[in-house]
Specification:
heterodimer; A: about 290 residues; alpha/beta; six-stranded mixed beta sheet; 10 helices; 13 strands; B: about 350 residues; mainly alpha; abc type-2 transporter like fold; 2 domains; four-stranded mixed beta sheet
Chain lengths: ~290, ~350
């Protein structure tokens, strides 16, 4: 399978500050790659280079087999971008915003209503965006990003600071896009979201890419395979940790369940944040 | 493809423009300025003498006054109405003409003619009105003036009223506000709201955006200038020469506007730029107001090359052939300004992303 996005040895500096230092990765069609890193890690700078907003100092970007120059209209017609900042036309309605961008993409028979319905904005479609809440604006941003049914979708912190309902709507759209075959690059510092959505995650810190792998592989590699069992309640309560790799692990769990004193059982796998800290030596919220 | 993208951008700008107080102000500006000119310079500095007349018969003076240009004539039904009219300062001069007045004058009976002056009227209007009536009486008497009056103007201009002298300045104002401010403001607004970044990740190129702002600015400015000229009665019967002049001026102003728009990161910086640099653009106007200054200095200003043709066409009746060299210089300046926008737009794009 040819990758939808191929990045090789990408570098960018803001003056003396090296924002991105030689990162390489690829993204396949239908795949969601979570770009994890704290603020200032270089996630947004990378997206700006991939979407033609910044020209890399060195390195190459291939999108859908085409080398991405600083702004290539043919490539840009096949990508979608959802920015971290809410950059909508506030004096236009939601519907007008979508129709305006559909014309820029040269879309014929564009169905704004279907897209507005998908992001739960049907009732407010003809209100000016200036009257929208933060969550509504972000959902409209997401709708705008997928207006052209992009082959590659770049999402920069799409659920940052949103209410749970808006976040869920956006996550559902991301899954839908991947299911129809779009390659999705998702930057976030929310490890739970990355874990839930991503097929693979990439750890970025101080402009360097530390690792790219599936969440499962990372957990297997850096986490511990154990379960924590809570027994009894009140003053009688106690906990027991069972290593799943041990020979008698199955018998021990069965005995505890048969004893009738098991209150809860939790797996003890490492979170992506734990793994990130272990690999980069830095937390995601820094 | 590119034309369609540019047209789509213009349609979006138009939609937003009619919702922007700044653009709405620019649209009503010609009417506001004309109103101001009429009120300030016509009512205060170019007042028309007003004469009210009550004629009991059919005097030839009344008929002559009716066909006289440059005065405003009112008819009163009765002497009382005339006196009330003057008392309220609705006319500068009131005339009561009795039945058989003309015959009495011709018969040399020296009939009485009562002049009523409004105490609030301008002295100049009283003199003009009185002289006019006395001149008509002399005509009626068929006597000639004892001297030959030769009219000469004391300044270099051919007796151009103040309100007309200001028309080039007014058009320049419209050019600066609409020609410079429309593209600059629209570009800066896109930057401030982040929508410029959103446009730049679509198939739209930065040159498409600049072109759409320039085209919209060009069309709006051209329309605003012509409306201003038409409202002030200054189309001068040479619409093609005026069109060429205003078009050249608009190209220069749009070029400056795009430079302002690409350089300024926000509205505050734009206003600072406009306030600090626009004094340089209106510089040539000062040389018309102070003719004693060395006039060649005016040519240093880029705006001189279309302001002077505008002045010559609207006020001195110049033809296109008289001003074509200056317009060609203006067009070259405009093209150079547009070329300067190219590297600035690259810098703008990078700064936007950073």
């Amino acid at each position: 399978m040819n990758p939808a996005l191929l990045v090789e040895n990408l570098c960018f500096s803001y003056g003396q500050l090296k924002a991105v230092q030689g990162i390489s990765f690829h993204l396949n069609p239908g795949e969601i790659l979570g770009f994890l890193g704290p603020n200032g890690a270089g996630k947004s700078t990378t997206i700006k280079m991939l979407t033609g907003q910044l020209t890399p100092d060195t390195g190459s970007i291939h999108i859908l087999g085409n080398e991405m120059t600083h702004d290539d209209p043919e490539v840009q017609a096949r990508i979608g971008v959802c920015f971290e900042e809410k950059n909508l036309y506030l004096n236009m309605t939601g519907r007008e915003n979508l129709k305006f961008f559909s014309r820029l993409f040269g879309l014929k028979n564009f169905d704004a209503d279907a897209l507005l319905s998908r992001v739960d904005l049907t009732q407010r479609a003809d209100d000016r965006v200036s009257k929208y809440s933060k969550g509504m604006r972000q959902r409209l941003m997401m709708a705008r990003a997928v207006i052209n049914r992009p082959d590659v979708l770049f999402l920069d912190e799409p659920t940052d600071g949103l209410d749970p309902v808006s976040s869920r709507t956006i996550r559902n759209i991301i899954r839908d896009q991947a299911e129809r075959g779009a390659a999705v690059l998702l930057t976030t510092h929310d490890m739970w979201e990355a874990d839930e959505l991503s097929n693979r995650v990439a750890f970025l810190n101080e402009g360097k890419l530390y690792t790219v792998d599936t969440p499962e592989n990372l957990k297997m590699k850096y986490g511990t395979r154990s379960v924590k069992v809570q027994l009894g309640s009140g003053s009688q309560a106690r906990e027991e940790t069972i290593e799943l790799g041990a020979e008698d692990a199955g018998d021990r769990i069965r005995d505890l369940i048969n004893s009738g004193s098991v209150m809860t059982i939790h797996t003890e796998e490492a979170t992506l944040e734990d793994i990130f800290i272990e690999i980069t030596g830095r937390g995601l919220d820094v | 493809m590119r034309i369609r993208r540019v047209m789509s951008l213009i349609s979006g700008d138009l939609r937003l423009g009619f919702r922007s107080p700044v653009i709405l102000w620019i649209l009503i500006m010609p009417f506001a300025i004309t109103f101001l000119l009429q009120v300030v310079f016509v009512a205060l500095f170019d007042p028309v003498p007003r004469i009210c007349i009550h004629d009991s018969g059919e005097s030839s003076i009344t008929m002559a006054l009716e066909s006289t240009e440059g005065i405003r004539l009112y008819r009163a039904e009765s002497p009382e109405e005339l006196k009330e009219f003057i008392k309220n300062n609705n006319a500068d001069l009131g005339l009561l003409i009795d039945n058989g007045f003309d015959e009495a004058v011709r018969d040399g009976l020296k009939p009485e003619l009562e002049f009523y002056f409004s105490g609030e009227s301008l002295v100049s209007n009283r003199i003009v009105s009185s002289l006019l009536v006395l001149d008509l009486l002399r005509e009626m008497e068929e006597s000639e003036t004892p001297v030959e009056v030769v009219l000469r103007t004391g300044n270099r201009d051919e007796a151009i009223p103040v309100s007309r002298k200001l028309i080039p300045a007014v058009v320049l104002f419209v050019l600066i506000v609409a020609g410079i401010f429309v593209p600059a403001f629209m570009l800066v607004e896109e930057k401030e709201h982040g929508t410029l970044r959103a446009l730049l990740v679509t198939p739209v190129r930065v040159s498409d955006i600049l072109l759409s702002k320039a085209l919209l600015g060009f069309t709006m400015t051209l329309a605003m200038c012509f409306i201003t000229l038409a409202l002030n009665g200054a189309l001068s019967g040479r619409p093609l020469a005026l069109l060429a002049t205003i078009a050249a001026g608009t190209v220069v102003c749009n070029g400056i506007g795009l430079i302002y728009g690409t350089v300024a990161g926000n509205a505050k910086t734009l206003y600072t730029l406009v306030k600090s640099l626009n004094i340089l653009l209106v510089g040539p106007i000062l040389f018309y107001l102070f003719p004693g200054w060395p006039q060649w200095i005016a040519r240093i200003f880029p705006t001189y090359w279309f302001i002077d043709p505008l002045y010559s066409i609207t006020l001195k009746g110049a033809e296109f052939s008289d001003v074509r060299f200056k317009l060609a210089v203006a067009l070259v300046i405009g093209i150079l300004l547009f070329l300067a926008v190219v590297p600035l737009s690259r810098r703008m794009k990078r700064k936007l992303a950073e």
